[in-house]
Description:
By secondary structure, the chain is mostly helical.
Amino acid sequence: xxxxGAFAVLKEDMKLRKxxxxxxxxxxxxxxxxxxxxxxxxxxxxxKNNRKGTTLHPLKVA
Length: 62
């Protein structure tokens, strides 16, 4: 829905300004590690705030 927020967190909070490796496979691996860390942080925060399993918007019934 809103990707800019995720990139802002990666750049500012996780200090991802410049990649530290060269090569397509190594760059992909490094970006995947940062994304995994971002998702783990979100999951931990959701569990801490008792919001695990909730959705942003209610599902519509057909």
